[in-house]
Write a structure and sequence with these properties.
By secondary structure, this protein is an all-alpha fold. The chain contains 12 helices and no strands. The chain has helices at 2-7, 9-33, 39-43, 52-62, 68-90, 96-99, 104-120, 127-135, 137-156, 163-170, 173-194, 198-203. It is globular and about 55 Å long.
């Protein structure tokens, strides 16, 4: 993928769009229609597995390779996905057509929007604060599953051991939209504080 990025960014964008179709659109469409679909058979040979497209998308956004129109389409799809997931949570996953919409377009539009805002507004006076918070990101990533499970148990009274019930929690707007902010801002001071202890510094970078 690095070689493709260096010599032909158009092919990289093509792989992103193919990846969206293979890993995001077709599985949801076929699930609603009742067809069995093995993503691996098609996704692996053409390097468009569900995780690969996140890396490719990040590269395309970082290097401003999306046109104005493409960016607006991603924003629109992200908003639609957000509304669908809220409706799915409110109806308790009763409707199949709502139940199989993934969060890729929502996360993609959120990332694209954050990059746009950071470039539009002067945030230099907050640079040191951002740098300190960013330094805790890896530690937060290590600890966030524990914090996430704690919040879900506290609020929804369910965890992964009851998987059929927990699937509904994973799509709940509170789990998707609220928990990430609570977890991030609560873990930043914890991680920074814990790193002051030398033994923990090697475990929690």
């Amino acid at each position: 993928m690095a070689v493709v990025a260096k010599f032909n960014e158009l092919i990289l964008k093509y792989s992103f769009y193919v990846g969206m179709i293979v890993a995001e659109i077709l599985p949801n469409l076929f699930a609603v229609l009742g067809f069995k679909y093995n993503q691996t058979n098609l996704g692996v040979p053409i390097l468009t597995g569900s995780w690969v497209i996140y890396y490719v998308f990040g590269y395309l956004v970082k290097n401003d390779l999306f046109t104005y129109r493409e960016s607006r389409i991603i924003y629109g799809l992200g908003f639609i996905v957000l509304i669908v997931n809220i409706l799915n949570a409110l109806t308790k996953s009763e409707y199949l057509v709502l139940n199989h919409v993934t969060l890729f377009f929502y996360t993609a539009s959120l990332y694209l929007g954050i990059k746009y805002l950071t470039e539009r507004f002067d945030l230099s006076k907050w640079a040191n604060g951002f740098k300190l918070a960013a330094s805790a990101t890896l530690g937060i990533y290590i600890l966030h599953p524990l914090a996430l499970e704690f919040l879900d148990l506290l609020f929804f009274k369910v965890d992964e051991s009851k998987w059929s019930l927990y699937l509904g929690v994973l799509r709940n707007p509170i789990h998707v939209l609220i928990w990430p902010f609570i977890i991030y801002f609560s873990l930043v001071p914890i991680v920074i504080g814990l790193r002051k202890f030398k033994p923990i510094r090697y475990i929690l970078p």
